[in-house]
Specification:
Blueprint lengths: L1 H6 L4 H26 L4 H22 L12 E5 L2 H5 L3 E6 L4 H16 L5 E5 L8 H8 L4 E4 L4 H7 L5 E6 L2 E7 L5 H8 L2
Parallel strand pairs: 2-3, 3-4
Antiparallel strand pairs: 1-6, 2-5, 5-6
Helix pairs in contact: 2-3, 2-8, 5-6
């Protein structure tokens, strides 16, 4: 449902939030129906109503859990200007390392963002290696939707990543101004980037 809402133009925050709200409403409707059906036995009616009130939410939550950074904008303000960011005047620089499963998973999110905002510039950069074969798995997954390459001046970004990959860096006018670790890159951060 979240992907459908994103495709329909809802923000990332609302696309994440609406399914949870709908499960609460659905649970409430079920609880009311069950309570009316069993109101002759008040204790049974209350127990069943509570059960049907919370089960839809818990079921959806079990399949689509809410993580700490899902609704936050968090991250940290930074100020870096160098040759790497001058190549990317405006957009998002994603720092990844070879063989990182979370980096690979982030590509689907980046593709959604790129589809929603085709003018958005995304540079997917791999650090921590000089082996050009590290680009291949990412390049295959990205399938030409945005740039993927090895980064040359990785020492500038080492303090930003804090050994958390992928790290997402917002670039404006050639200046790196904000960064998010993978755990911080939630719906609020995505909306912030898409709103720029």
């Amino acid at each position: 449902m979240e992907n459908y809402l994103l495709d329909s133009g809802f923000s990332h925050v609302w696309s994440k939030l609406i399914p949870y709200l709908l499960t609460v409403i659905f649970g409430l409707i079920l609880a009311i129906i069950v309570y009316r059906r069993f109101k002759g036995n008040k204790k049974l009616a209350i127990v069943l109503s509570l059960f049907f009130l919370i089960v839809p939410f818990i079921g959806y939550f079990a399949v689509n859990p809410i993580y700490e950074g899902d609704f936050g904008i968090n991250g940290k303000a930074i100020s870096i200007r160098n040759a790497q960011t001058k190549k990317l005047k405006n957009g998002i620089l994603v720092l990844a390392i070879p063989g990182c499963p979370y980096c690979m998973q982030s590509i689907s999110t980046l593709k959604v963002m790129k589809n929603r905002k085709p003018e958005m510039n995304i540079d997917f950069s791999i650090i921590g290696t000089t082996d050009s074969s590290a680009v291949e798995p990412y390049s295959k997954e990205i399938n030409g939707q945005f740039d993927v390459k090895l980064i040359e001046n990785e020492s500038v970004y080492t303090s930003i990543t804090g050994s958390s990959f992928p790290t997402f860096i917002l670039i404006e006018n050639g200046m790196a101004i904000h960064s998010w670790t993978n755990n911080e890159f939630g719906a609020g951060a995505k909306d912030k980037i898409e709103g720029r």
